[in-house]
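Every protein is a chain of amino acids, and every chain bends into a shape of its own. Below is the pair of lines this work produces for a single protein:
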Amino acid sequence: MKKIRLRNRKGQTIVGVLEEPQGEIRGTCVIEHGYSGHKEADHIQKIKNAFLENGFITFNFDATNSFNESDGEFIDATLGLHHEDLEDVVKWVKKQEWFVKPLALTGHSMGGYAVARYAEDYPDEVDILVPVAPVVSGKLNFEAFERFHPGGLDTWKRDGIRIEKSARRGVMKRMTWESMEERLDHDLLPDADKITIPTLLIVGSKDESCPPDHVEKLLKKISSKDKALKIIEGAPHTYRNEKDLEEVKHSISSWLKDIIE
């Protein structure tokens, strides 16, 4: 395990961890967490370990503007900046002497959007794709928020900011209306047909941020002949209990075995 620091296009420091598998190396995987996340989160570690144990070199990094080791303030976080970090990291990874094809990308929530977007923008560079509870589009994100929090968007827009306490870490998350509105600039659906590589989508049946019906819309648009959707029964947006965590890891691991063996 090796901690590495690099800089994004804005000159901010991004901190990541490079790990190599025991035995045969079968590829390289880049992992990105979601909004307010960090590379050490339990669900991110499970996702990473699924790839690591199947022979992939992993680079698991902290996006900027979150509660982690990388630069930036959470209040400045946007979906677009999250994607830019992923893009900068992948381009850096591909230049390293330890990089080995095939390239796999995986991420949770905003990270799930970012890796799918990269696969759309650079279809010849990515070989394996695993978006977990991905943000499919800003428009659908608004729809989900209003579905599960009726009137919440109007209140958020009126106040200009939404403040909530992290369930696990206890930090106060200050989210501007501008950061929510910025999501309307993003949509995976129009170019999803460019994704022709093996793709596994994962979502919890109780996900209120990126619900299963939204992820199913993305699945239908993806052109890959080797695509699958795994719904974790009873799981919310972020996986915290051991059952959900192990099911995510097992789902990725068993699917990878079919892909690479």
